[in-house]
Amino acid sequence: MVYERYDQPLLSLGGFLRRVFLHGMAAIGLLAIPLLVGIVGYMGLASLSPVNAFLNASMILGGMGPVDPLPTDAAKIFAGVYALFAGVFYLVVAGVIIAPFLHRVLHRLHVADGSDSGGGQGGG
After folding, report:
1. How many other CB atoms sit within 10 Å of the CB of residue 87?
2. pTM for this prediction
């Protein structure tokens, strides 16, 4: 996803909405991978059914925590590592979603300012 440079005009509203949509789709695509890893991990290590594995994986990815008791130490270790990963991953997905809005605000401020600091080189 390529953003316009500081010296280019602000993206049209239609283009911006398309960019937001694409970022949302990218976030959903990014979420599918760790969700699948969680489902497989819970099915294999905690012997959960696919539906219960999905529930537990999605709850951890959403920041809520597991639902079912975990029967083995391996399942508990997996859940702990998965929860730590999910916490960091949550920030990545939030960044993907927020990026087009933040870029637009910063780009609009630069365009409204009308300043050009020489391409960001030197000159305080």
Report:
1. 12
2. 0.69
Cα 38 to chain center, whole Å? 16
Q: Which domains does the chain have, with CATH numbers?
A: 32-113 (1.10.287)
Tell me the C-alpha distance between 64 and 80, whole Å. 13
d(CA 99, CA 93): 10
Residue 122 has a pLDDT of: 42
- CA–CA–CA angle 75, 43, 45 (5° rounding): 25
Distance in angstroms (rounded) separating the CA atoms of residues 106 and 109: 5
Q: Which helix (H) or strand (E) holds 58?
A: helix 50-61
How far is residue 100's CA from residue 45's CA, in Å, rounded to a whole number? 39
Residue ranges in the chain modelled with pLDDT below 50: 118, 120-124
